[in-house]
Amino acid sequence: MLCSELLADLERYRPALPAQAGEAAIMEQLRQRIDIRLAELYREFRVEESESNLAQDQQFALYQREVDAVLLPRYSRIAHLQNQLEQAPRRAGQGRDLYNRLSYTLGFFLLGLFIVWAPFIPIWEKWIPFALAALAPLLSPFLPDLYGMWLQQKHQVALFGLHEDLDKLGRALPLPTISEARDGKRLLDGVKSASAPGSVAAAHRAANKETP
Predict the structure, then answer these.
(1) Cα Rg for the chain, rounded, in angstroms?
(2) Are residues 50 and 99 in the same domain?
């Protein structure tokens, strides 16, 4: 859970990374971000009110080790690749633009074939598919970015794979101790009071007094 929140925070931080930064520079900036956010999220999940010394916390050291070994290098590669693709210059008739134009041309041509074929549409002119195919490249800049959506889908698949591995890794780690702060302390006090000798009998006596 903690690593999932950290991964979501890094994904929100990713667009702020410099466009021309290499993988090593991105890893260093992500490491700085992790050093800040991991401690904050760890205290939040443990319901810590005091600024405890995390340098002596064995559970935090365990999380930090796994984040540095698994999350940081893998996410650095994913972020570097995605930023390069998203921030690449767009040129007419190349790359993203060419992909979108060809995709819409094919799609409009197939739509025209369907219109001519469909018996419930009273249009049978054979030139309709070719006219739509010729119109598609002109309309492509004003239509949804298919190439961008495809890139985003691939990015989400990569993030999902990393998230699944982090989830499995988290379940394999030793469970942390219950926090002594705030809700954790109240939980422990409630358990202690409930298990104290005579507590059950006292509850029964109070219930009998209330009944007529």
Answers:
(1) 29
(2) no
81 in the same domain as 174:
yes
Mean pLDDT, residues 29-53 taken together: 78
Tokens representing residue 199 in the block: 């507590």
Structure tokens at 92: 């007419």
Task: Please give the DSSP secondary-structure letter assigned to residue 173.
Answer: S
Q: How far is CA 195 from CA 15, 42, 179, 183, 192, in A?
A: 52, 30, 19, 18, 5
Dist. CA 66–CA 30, nearest whole Å: 15
- Centre a 10 Å sphere on the Cβ of residue 9 and count the other Cβ atoms it contains: 17
Domain that holds residue 37: 1-88+146-179
- The amino acid at residue 187 is L
pLDDT at 76: 92
Residues 6+ apart with CB under 8 A from 48: 42, 179, 181
Angle formed at CA 192 by CA 190 and CA 194, multiple of 5 degrees: 65
Length of the chain: 212
| pLDDT class of 176 with cuts at 50, 70, 90 | low
Q: How many domains does the chain have?
A: 2
pLDDT value of residue 127: 86
Q: Is the pTM of this model over 0.70?
A: no
Q: How far apart are CA 9 and CA 38, in angstroms?
A: 10
Measure the CA–CA gap between 10 and 82, rounded to whole angstroms. 13
Q: Which amino acid is at 95?
A: G
